[in-house]
Design goal:
This protein is of the alpha+beta class. It contains five helices and eight strands. It comes from Pestalotiopsis fici (strain W106-1 / CGMCC3.15140).
Length: 219
């Protein structure tokens, strides 16, 4: 009789320890407890995976970028500043194929230049040439030599200086098959009195080569 009475507290203690262990397990590992609790159910009734929503086919394909490149020559000119917008457009009929893009013009010489500037008053081009001559004269006030490099004459080094100041290339936007520069011609898109200039810095007439590169989306 006494032995059975002493065994009851021991059994109660075991259940209490087990419950305490379960509470401890749930408190510190709730995700694992939840997984073990529902594991038999998921083995008998596996969950169904919903099908991903179908994406309707796109009605429009992305616009493809296109490139075009060619070389053309500028009309032979001696020293001066010249408006060549029409010549460029006539030499590049490919411009009409582009809805939007960029035209880069690069002159392949070191004694001339390309620029964008006013196209309305001819005096602007004459004044520009005179101003560049004052910046880089062929000789000093008393006729003295100013430069070491004169292999092709007294205008050789001044031409290189002017070319470095103005630059060998211009980039112009294309919009709806036209150059997006201002012009007296109403077919041009935007801007105010802009034109493409060819500046020749040598006294003797030269024929200059230009590489034209077009990048954009065709119409």
């Amino acid at each position: 009789m006494p032995s059975s009475t002493n065994a009851r507290p021991s059994a109660n203690y075991s259940w209490f320890s087990f419950l305490l262990l379960v509470v401890f397990f749930i408190g510190f590992f709730p995700s694992l407890f939840n997984y073990l609790l529902f594991l038999p159910w998921t083995l008998v009734f596996p969950p169904s995976t919903p099908a991903p929503p179908s994406t309707p086919p796109s009605s429009s394909s992305p616009a493809e970028m296109s490139w075009s490149q060619k070389q053309f020559t500028l009309p032979p000119r001696s020293r001066g500043s010249y408006l060549v917008t029409d010549h460029v457009v006539d030499s590049l009929p490919e411009i009409r194929d582009y809805k939007v893009g960029l035209l880069n013009l690069f002159v392949q010489h070191t004694s001339c230049a390309l620029s964008l500037n006013e196209n309305w008053d001819d005096d602007v081009r004459a004044d520009m040439s005179d101003a560049l001559d004052r910046i880089a004269p062929e000789s000093g006030p008393k006729g003295q030599e100013l430069y070491r490099h004169s292999a092709e004459g007294p205008d050789d080094m001044p031409a290189h200086i002017k070319s470095a100041l103005i630059g060998a290339s211009v980039t112009i936007p294309i919009r709806d098959g036209k150059l997006a520069i201002g012009s007296r011609v109403t077919s041009q898109a935007t801007g105010t009195w802009q034109g493409i200039w060819y500046l020749e810095f040598r006294a003797v007439r030269h024929t200059r080569r230009v590489v034209a590169t077009i990048q954009g989306q065709k119409a």
